[in-house]
Amino acid sequence: MKAALVGEDGTLLHEARRATARERGAEAVVDTILGFVADLYAYGGDHLGEGAVAAGVAVPGIVDAERGVAVYAANLGWRDVPLRKLIGERLGGIPVALGHDVRTGGLAEGRIGAGRGADRFLFVPLGTGIAGAIGIRGTIEAGAHGYAGEIGHVVVRPDGPDCGCGQRGCLETLASASAVSRAWAAASGDPEADAADCAKAVASGDPAARRVWQNAVDALAAGLVTALTLLDPGTLIIGGGLAEAGETLFTPLRAAVEERVTFQKLPHIVPAALGDTAGCLGAGLLAWDLLSTEVSA
Question: 282 is in which domain, residue-wise?
């Protein structure tokens, strides 16, 4: 887990990290979160002269932001956790905002990161899976049911690998860091090889690595062009582990997207700027937004 104290302008004032304790079960994860936020609040009072005036929390899985409930997260093992209520009680009743991790990271990238100044953007982190955040005028579109932006489950190859969602050929089965790691481990004969190793092999000119990499890039471009057709963003922000490959990813990706568009306008395709602090900063922005909403109300 990553946590931060964040100023009203998005400045990172203090950052801390802590293990989730997920191996001990869902209750242990919740207890760890509550202890972490209490320690962070105390740090503000002890070292910055005042405690936080609001809290923002970003979690994976299905999130009901309006009710402040973490509905479900397979990797954390929890269901229907009233995080907003629990954290508010632990912190003495200060306002608490709850958000989805990818959308929260997208909020930060849009306001203070690579999408700053963009009226409409799409943030796509390429990690264990693939998700997306749709940015519109400084806010993130959650959708009618909180599922907007799930680009990882756009089918790009109907005869492709089975996906955990029940479909076949979803984008994340072909172009996530996990998918590239699996493909390169098989192609290289090294079960320990991962996506970063594949990127290095691509840069060194390995033909097998280039085939694996281009297969992922082609699938990613197909998914992104579908998103461009639907959303028409001005800026496309790519983050996550695969983006750390730099131009090894971005040069062929820009070419593959350009090759596929017809009437669509090409967006600026740029790397994310905030790295793995985006979620922390976005959670802080959620908290400040909550305060401004309360004041205006």
Answer: 2-104+276-296
The total number of residues shown for the chain amounts to 297
Q: Verify that 184 and 264 share a domain, yes or no.
A: yes
**In angstroms, rounded to a whole number, what is the distance separating the alpha carbons of residues 5 and 1?**
14
**Statement: residue 62 has pLDDT above 90:** no
Both 172 and 196 in one domain: the answer is yes
Does residue 188 carry a pLDDT above 80?
Answer: yes
CA distance linking residue 231 with residue 16, whole number of Å: 36
**Which of 104, 102, 141 has its CA nearest to residue 119?**
141
9 vs 230, residue with greater confidence: 230
Is residue 10 within 8 A of residue 23, CB to CB? The reply is no
pLDDT in tens, 15-26: 999 988 888 888
Domain identity same for 228 and 130: yes
109 within domain boundaries? no
**Is the distance from CB of 39 to CB of 18 less than 8 angstroms?**
no
The domain total for the chain is: 2
- Look at residue 295 in the predicted model and tell me its pLDDT: 53
Give me the pLDDT at residue 294, please. 61
Domain assignment present for residue 243? The answer is yes
Tell me what pLDDT residue 296 has.
52
Which residues 6+ apart lie within 8 Å of 120 measured at CB?
Answer: 135, 136, 137, 231, 232, 233, 234, 235
Q: Report pTM.
A: 0.89
H helix intervals, the chain: 26-47, 83-90, 101-112, 172-175, 177-188, 195-203, 207-231, 247-260, 278-296
Q: Domain of 280: which CATH number?
A: 3.30.420.40
25: its two tokens: 């079960």
| Whether residue 285 sits in one domain with residue 242 | no
pLDDT more than 70, % of the chain: 99
